[in-house]
Amino acid sequence: MDLQHRWLSTAVDVLKISGDLPQKWWGVIEGRYSEKQRHYHTLRHLEEMFQHFDKYFKKLNQPELVVLAIFFHDIIYDPKANDNEEESAEVFSQFSKEAGNLEADKTDAVMKWILQTKSHSVKENSDNDLQFFLDMDMAVLGRPSEGYKKYADQIREEYIHIPDPEYKKRRSAVLRGFCQRQRIFATDEFHEMYHDIAIQNLKTEILCLEK
Q1: Burial (CB count <10 Å: 0-12, 13-18, 19+), residue 81
Q2: Domain of 78: which CATH number?
Q3: 59-117 tens-digit pLDDT
Q4: Which of 37, 40, 68, 96 has the fewest CB atoms below 10 angstroms from its CB?
């Protein structure tokens, strides 16, 4: 299922949003994720997340909310800003208000999940759907080595405004933080499938950054 079909199917068939609103917001989503400053955080990133979504769909309690979180979690992405997650959550809030039929607790949940992508840190007893959503976002760390290198290169392109020495220092610190976690992935499914290769990828990139 392509992204537009998935969005319209969720908005119209599941959320029962009528009129021009679903198509209007697809235009917003497509436009935002196609911005020129994006190299990794693009529509392709959403497609990859939905591949995992389809695989674990039956394990989700409210899959329609996970769909919304995926579509909106990076809708605002300015590599020079530090409030992208907050701004993305606000855009989702705007969509929810325009839709008019999404309960407040569901809107709050999706906004909370989007905000959690800032740290990708969850407690063991946190919401099941939140755990799967964050793992879908982090699964790139478990790509085969060549795929991971492509991801790392794309991230560097997004932060091209940062001088190389400073970028290497910051990026290395972030990666070391992930390596020091007992678990990178919240769910057992993603942990078992991707943890070991993710650690290897992170260590390899750190070595390259610190040469």
Answers
A1: exposed
A2: 1.10.1300.10
A3: 999 999 999 999 999 999 999 999 999 999 999 999 999 999 999 999 999 999 999 99
A4: 37
